[in-house]
Amino acid sequence: MQHLETIVDAVFEILKEKFQYVFDHLEPENKQHIAMKGRFVSYLQEHIFIGFNSSCYDIPLVKAHLLEYILDKSSLLS
Questions:
Q1: Is the model's pTM score more than 0.70?
Q2: What is the dihedral angle through the alpha carbons of 28, 39, 15, 60, rounded to the nearest 10 degrees?
């Protein structure tokens, strides 16, 4: 799970650079721009991992660690 998180973080940094012009456009911060920037960052942080026969291999591999990972992350947010 940590490896996937590292990949997601790296991809987010690349996308943030690619879409810097959007962040620049939203720079004069008002309530609407803050909300839009938050939604845009959330969008950039979402990543779909697709693989061949993923349901047969990836899900069983990850599911053993997924609940522990989610609980750990949610306790950090609380």
A1: no
A2: 160
